Amino acid sequence: MRQIYSPTRPDYRSAMGQLLVLYTQVDKLIMLACAERLASAPDDAARLGLAQQVGDESRHVAIQQEWMTRFGTDTTPVLSAPQEQAILAHFRALGWIDFLIDMYLCVEALGSDAVEQIVPLADPGTQESLRIPLADELNHIAFGVNRLREELARMQPAERQACLTRIPQRIADLTRTFFATGIDVQALFVAVGADFDGLRNTVLARKDEILREVATPLAA
Ligand SMILES: [Fe+2]
Ligand SMILES: [Fe+2]
After folding, report:
1. According to the model, what pLDDT value does residue 134 have?
2. How far is the C-alpha of 196 from the C-alpha of 173, rounded, in Å?
3. What is the 129 CA–ligand 2 centroid distance (Å)?
4. Structure pTM?
5. Residue whose C-alpha is closest to residue 218's, from 142, 140, 152, 144
6. Helix, strand, or coil here: 156?
7. Residue 2 included in any domain
8. Rounded Cα gap, residues 176 and 171, in angstroms
9. How many domains does the chain fold into?
10. Interval 110-115 mean pLDDT
11. Using an 8 Å Cβ cutoff, are 190 and 14 in contact?
């Protein structure tokens, strides 16, 4: 049977606190990765999207930091400094198409999907702290998905097919890398009241949905 934990339990507060620290660290890394990408972005539309996102993520970091102080969160980093550097190095090394896949399909779309599932289980203050960030993430996902569809539309058929085939593999690789960090996300999700198998199934369904969306050709 699914267990629901009370948000007043001490393990709820520490687990939710750790998830907030992780979310804030990821947002800061996204901000830095997008800021670095500005220099090599292929055109002005890409630069505008990235610049908007850098501003949004910096606002999310500020909102979360302010909320974590009021929530009494232990802000010890969940990702170590070497892990943060490895994530930035990963994004730095990617070509534009793989950057779009890893940043927007994997981190933004699937990461946000997991966070969205936590919101109904969260205390009102945490819910409010996630309201603006999650609304902005929808814009980031839309930017990434639309841009990837435009890039696919410009490719030759064989290249397009190779790219579409590569996407699920990249998502699987990045997911494996995330779980190899040693962060027990399953324990954290369970401690805040999530049904982990249900959550994973919802994220997998979202992955299938977004793969279909990306593979749909743009209207002529
Ligand atoms: Fe964000
Ligand atoms: Fe975002």
Report:
1. 96
2. 20
3. 14
4. 0.93
5. 152
6. coil
7. no
8. 9
9. 1
10. 94
11. no
Gap between the Cα atoms of 131 and 23, Å rounded: 13
Determine the structural domain holding residue 67 and report its residue range: 10-215
Distance 112 CA to ligand 1 centre (A): 9
pLDDT of residue 1: 37
Token readout for 29 is 């890394």
Q: Give 10-29 pLDDT, tens digit per residue.
A: 689 999 999 999 999 999 99
The CATH number of the domain holding residue 20 is: 1.20.1260.10
Ligand nearest to the CA of 140: 2
Contact call for residues 151 and 100 (beta carbons, < 8 A): yes
- Mean pLDDT for 158-169 is 96
Phi, psi of 104 (to 5 degrees): -95, -40
Count of C-beta atoms within a 10 Å radius of residue 41:
17
Q: Which ligand is nearest to the CA of 25?
A: 1
d(CA 149, CA 212): 11
Q: 2 pLDDT exceeds 90?
A: no
**Does residue 3 surpass a pLDDT of 50?**
no
Distance 27 CA to ligand 1 centre (A): 5
